[in-house]
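Onboarding guide, step 5: your first structure request.
Type a short instruction followed by the sequence, for example:

Predict the 3D structure of this protein.
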Amino acid sequence: MPGYLLKDERIAIDGAADLWIRSLLDRQQFADPRGEAAAFGISSAAWPLFGLLWPSALQLAGRLATHPLVAGERILELGCGLGLASLVGHRRGADMTASDCHPLAGAFLAENLRLNGLPPLAYRHGDWASVAGAPGPPGHEPLRGRFDLVIGSDLLYERDDRGVLAGYIDRHATAQAPVWIVDPNRGNRSAFNRQMAAHGYDLVDTPIVQPASPRLDAYRGRWLVYRRPARDPAEN
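The system replies with structure tokens like these:
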């Protein structure tokens, strides 16, 4: 990737075989010769964050590693970054779609697929604030359709007073799709819970307390599972 310092690491995932992941060396990596950062509205400080491997992504990947796969189930990862969870699901044979709003996320995902000897994986441009049905930026195919399981990690890092993330999930989740969010105790969680409730979702909030082990670092956060209550057919 021209203009960037990179590193390759063998990543241990609870419940799955290790994966090789290519990432940015650190959060100081910023190169934007074509002005994409400004075009996408991403600051120089936020630009490198997609290309780092965050602890919550490891938690999400571990959950997907043991998720019982259902034939025909379509799974969407929001804000995939380096796509660790999507790679785990894809390697297991799940019908995965990875999405992110960063213009370099697709290229890094393709490189990580190559490093692990995996076939192509569906990737779409996912901008939560985009107007429903609007085309994506040139060369970036927008996310369309609905999915049977929607997952994401560390998505609540910014205030979202208008509830654009909850609305985006509502547009892309089937009526009975569960939504998994791994959250490292961000302060925006309560507001997001209210926004999801406004779309009809109930919440099961489970603390995650993982002690350090020889393979994995310690982690504290929340396992958030949102579901709409099943409708009684007699109500139709």
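Each response can be followed by summary notes, for example: The longest strand covers residues 16-24.
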